[in-house]
Amino acid sequence: DIQMTQSPSSLSASVGDRVTITCRASQSITSYLNWYQHKPGVAPKLLVYAASSLQSGVPSRFSGSGSGTDFTLTISSLQPEDFATYYCQQTFSVLPYTFGQGTKLEIK
Amino acid sequence: QVQLQESGPGLVKPSETLSLTCTVSGGSIRSYYWSWIRQPPGKGLEWIGYIFHDGSTNYNPSLKSRVTISADTTKNQISLKLTSVAAADTAVYYCARDPSNHGDHGWFDPWGQGTLVTVSS
């Protein structure tokens, strides 16, 4: 399996802060990397697909970058509704698709 | 827009079969990949498997011997069966669509809200 490691596992930040979450793959996954936002009791939401493509309707303060093994999700100016858990996912290998362990973003 | 809703028993006994249905509204299940994903309490997300509208499937090797995913195009539903369940199968189960038409290299959007299944006697 391709292991996906996110850092940090949790993060405290304030409204207006710039936040970066990192995802590292155990082998190259080219650009087959997606980012999701998950709030309790709500369906997970796709933010970024194929490493850097912003999903339609997602605010432009979210951006993704990277290729190969190292990827980042950046929120340029945190809003109150952004406090959630964020997951990366690789779809380079279907045997199996794997997710990072999650990064919980909390209000400072 | 497309909406997904998972349904099924919230409690399953150990060694029995977990059966869930994902009902798709606002669009057809044809021409897309449909996945099941689960999240045990306090843990991360685990992909279970997918089905393409033509009936072809791919499963997580760790669950492959116990999983069957099927599709009913007449009812616009995707189903999950997981046999011989144990406490470790307790999780919120989600269904999701891959809208990408990128074969095995897509992404999941949208997801259903999920349904909690507890395995306990």
How confident overall, as mean pLDDT of chain B? 95
Rounded Rg of chain B? 14 Å
Q: Largest sheet of chain A, if any?
A: 7 strands, mixed
Percent in strands of chain B: over 45%
Radius of gyration of chain A: 13 Å
Order of helices and strands of chain A: EEEEEEEEEEE
Distance between the amino and carboxyl termini of chain B: 39 Å
- In helices, the fraction of residues of chain A equals under 10%
The percentage helix of chain B is under 10%
- C-alpha geometry of chain A: globular
Spans of chain A of at least 5 consecutive residues whose pLDDT stays below 50 are none
Describe the oligomeric state of these chains in a short phrase: heterodimer
- The amount of beta strand of chain A, in percent, is over 45%
* Count of DSSP-assigned helices of chain B: 0
Q: SSE string of chain B, helix = H, strand = E?
A: EEEEEEEEEE
Could you tell me the mean pLDDT of chain A?
A: 96
What is the SS-derived class of chain A?
mainly beta
- What characteristic shape of chain B results from the CA principal axes? globular
Report, as a whole number of angstroms, the end-to-end distance of chain A. 35 Å
